[in-house]
Amino acid sequence: MPSGVFKPYAGVSTAILIFTKTESGGTDHVWFYHMQADGLSLDDKRTLLTPKQGESEHSVNNLPDILARWRSLTDASADGETGRDVELNRERTEQSFLVPKAEIAENDYDLSINRYKEIVYEEVEYDPPAKILGELRALESQIETGLDELEALLER
């Protein structure tokens, strides 16, 4: 859960662990979901959020998606594929994914999502400094011209 969910009492991010009883052998994968919004603002007021025009409800409230994905982990679809199969095939850059228990054991049972989630960084290209300085000089020249025109108007 994002930091601010428990404001004004605490401003730290929170993880929730859910243990389910298995019928045989225990857990072979752990499901992670990176919750980013719970439908309320993350400030001290915690006011109800509504999506801006063009945004989906998911952008302000992940709870329905969390519940749907959690329930689907054991449900099979018409083609026989389960939500578990879907989650197993998700990339680690997505909002939810499954991690093999063996990998978690290799990481000393660290259950921090940041240990397993992959972050994709977009490379940002900037104009060369000389071009930026040229644009700044052109803007400065326009400002100077505008100030001269204003000054001339005031002297009339």
Task: Please characterize this protein's 3D structure.
The chain is built from five helices and two strands; from the N terminus they run βααβααα. It is mainly alpha-helical and 156 residues long. Strands 1-2 form a two-stranded antiparallel sheet. The longest helix has 27 residues, at 129-155. It is elongated.
- Overall residue-averaged pLDDT value: 87
Strand line-up of the largest beta sheet: 1-2
What is the number of helical segments per DSSP (H or I, 4+ residues)? 5
Task: Please give the alpha-carbon distance between the first and last residues.
Answer: 64 Å
Question: Radius of gyration from the CA trace?
Answer: 26 Å
Global structural class: mainly alpha
Strand content: 5-15%
Question: Main sheet?
Answer: 2 strands, antiparallel
Tell me, briefly, the overall form: elongated
Helix content: 25-40%
SSE series? EHHEHHH
Number of DSSP strands? 2
| Low-confidence parts | none
